[in-house]
C-alpha cells in the first residue's frame, strides 16, 4: 500500500497528482480543510490536505469495465462510515417496516358495505398498503363503472387495474430526468440520497457519455464527504465540497463546464426546521434546475405526510422512491403518487452502485400492487 499526502488550494487540484503518482485505482482516504499557515490563515484562507492510497500493483482496467466487473457495494463504503451510525439507520428502517405491517393488519379489519366481490378487492388494496380512504374511492369508481352483474367477478380486477393505471398516468406520469441540469437530492436521513446520486451520475456518465460533476453540501457527518469521494473516484468524476453558501457558488462556477452537476445534501429530520432553512439558503442563493425528494418506501405513509409537508419548501420537481427491495407490499407507491402528485423519476432496488436502480411505468406499478399476494388478508 502506497500512501501520499497532498496540500492543495482546491480539491480538484489533487486529482491529477493522485492519478500521476498512484494510478487510477487510488482511493482518497481523507480530505481535511486546514487553515493556511502564516498571514494567509489570518485572512481566512484555507488549504486542503488530501490523503490518498493505492495498492502496490497498478491496474490498467478502464473506468467503465471496472464498474461492470466490480460493482461497488456500500459494504465497501461502510468501512468509512461510523458503525453505530449505520446501525441507527438500519434500526430506524426496521421500525418503519414494523409500523407499516401494523397499519396494514389494523386496516384489514375495516369493513364496508361493498358487495362481496368488491369487498374482496377493497381488502386486497388495503392489505397491499393502500390507505383505506383511497382504497374506498377506487372501489366506488369501479362500482360506478360496472353494475355488479354487468361484469363477471373474475374480470373486476382488470377494471380496477385500468382505473389505477389511468389515475397514475393522469396525476403524475413517470418521467425521466433529462437535459442539462443541476440536480440536488434532498430528503430525510439515511434514505439513500448519496448512493442514489452515485447511481444516477454513473448512468449519465457511462450510458449517456455525459460530462458530470458532484458537489456535496453534506459537511454534517464526518464520513459523508468521504462516501461521495469514493464514488467520484471510481466514476472518475470530480467531487467539490462546499461548506458555505459562498463555497457552493464557487463550486457551481468551477463546474460550469460540466453537462450535469449532481448535488448531494445532508439528510435532515423534517422536525429540524432550522437545519432545513439553512440548506434552503444555498438554493435560494443559486437556483437549481431540479430538486428531487428522496423517500424510502419502507417509511410508512402516515410518517411521510409531515415529511413531505416540510420538504416541499424545496419545491421538488419529482421523487425518487428508494429501497423497493426492502418492502413486501407496494400500495405505498400508489399512496405517494396520488397524494403528492409528483412524478417518480426512479426506484432504487438495493445497495449496489450503479445497477440497483430502475424506472417503472404506471402499469408496472399497478401490477406490482395487484399481482402481489404477500400480505394479502383472506
Ligand atoms: N436495501 C437498500 N439499501 C439501500 C438502497 N439505497 C441505499 N441503501 C442503503 O441505505 C444506507 C444509507 O444510504 P445513503 O446513500 O448513505 O443514504 P443518505 O440518504 O445519503 O444518508 P444521509 O446522508 O446520512 O442522510 C446505506 O447502507 C445504503 O447502502 C436501496 O435501494 N435498497
Ligand atoms: Mg448522504
Automatic annotation (TrEMBL):
Q: For this protein, what is any one GO molecular function term?
A: GTPase activity
Q: Where is the AAA+ ATPase domain?
A: 179-321
Name one process (GO BP) from the record. Answer: SRP-dependent cotranslational protein targeting to membrane
| SRP54-type proteins GTP-binding domain span | 180-371
A cellular component term from Gene Ontology for this protein is: plasma membrane
Pfam families xref list: SRP54
CDD domains attached here?
FlhF
Q: What name does this protein carry?
A: Flagellar biosynthesis protein FlhF
In which organism is this protein found?
Alkalicella caledoniensis
**Organism taxonomic ancestry:** Bacteria, Bacillati, Bacillota, Clostridia, Eubacteriales
Amino acid at each position: 500500500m502506497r500512501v501520499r499526502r497532498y496540500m492543495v488550494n482546491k480539491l480538484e487540484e489533487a486529482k491529477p497528482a493522485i492519478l500521476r503518482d498512484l494510478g487510477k485505482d487510488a482511493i482518497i482516504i481523507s480530505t481535511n480543510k486546514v487553515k493556511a499557515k502564516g498571514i494567509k490563515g489570518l485572512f481566512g484562507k484555507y488549504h486542503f490536505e488530501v490523503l490518498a492510497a493505492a495498492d502496490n500493483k497498478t491496474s490498467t482496467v478502464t473506468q467503465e469495465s471496472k464498474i461492470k466487473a466490480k460493482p461497488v457495494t456500500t459494504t465497501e463504503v461502510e468501512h468509512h462510515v461510523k458503525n453505530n451510525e449505520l446501525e441507527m439507520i438500519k434500526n430506524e428502517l426496521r421500525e418503519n417496516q414494523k409500523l407499516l405491517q401494523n397499519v396494514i393488519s389494523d386496516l384489514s379489519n375495516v369493513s364496508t358495505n361493498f358487495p362481496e366481490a368488491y369487498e374482496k378487492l377493497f381488502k386486497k388494496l388495503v392489505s397491499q398498503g393502500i390507505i383505506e380512504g383511497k382504497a374506498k374511492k377506487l372501489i366506488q369508481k369501479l362500482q360506478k363503472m360496472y353494475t355488479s352483474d354487468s361484469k363477471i367477478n373474475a374480470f373486476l380486477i382488470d377494471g380496477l387495474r385500468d382505473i389505477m393505471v389511468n389515475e397514475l398516468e393522469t396525476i403524475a406520469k413517470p418521467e425521466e430526468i433529462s437535459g442539462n441540469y443541476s440536480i440536488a437530492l434532498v430528503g430525510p436521513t439515511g434514505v439513500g440520497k448519496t448512493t442514489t446520486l452515485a447511481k444516477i451520475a454513473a448512468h449519465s456518465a457511462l450510458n449517456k457519455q455525459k460530462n458530470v460533476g458532484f458537489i456535496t453540501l453534506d459537511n454534517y457527518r464526518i464520513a459523508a464527504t468521504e462516501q461521495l469521494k469514493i464514488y467520484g473516484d471510481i466514476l472518475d468524476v470530480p467531487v467539490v465540497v462546499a461548506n458555505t453558501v459562498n463555497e457552493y457558488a464557487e463550486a457551481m462556477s468551477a463546474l460550469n463546464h460540466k453537462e450535469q452537476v449532481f448535488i448531494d445534501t445532508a439528510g435532515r429530520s423534517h422536525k429540524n426546521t432550522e437545519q432545513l432553512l439553512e440548506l434552503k439558503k444555498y438554493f435560494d442563493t443559486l437556483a437549481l434546475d431540479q430538486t428531487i425528494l428522496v423517500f424510502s418506501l419502507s417509511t410508512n405513509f402516515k410518517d411521510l405526510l409531515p415529511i413531505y409537508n416540510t420538504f416541499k419548501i424545496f419545491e421538488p420537481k419529482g421523487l425518487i422512491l428508494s429501497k423497493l427491495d426492502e418492502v413486501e407490499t407496494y400500495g405505498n407507491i400508489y399512496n405517494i403518487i396520488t397524494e403528492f402528485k409528483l412524478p417518480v423519476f426512479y426506484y432504487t432496488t438495493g445497495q449496489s452502485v450503479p445497477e440497483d436502480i430502475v424506472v417503472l411505468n404506471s402499469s408496472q406499478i399497478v401490477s406490482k400492487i395487484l399481482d402481489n399476494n404477500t400480505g394479502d388478508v383472506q
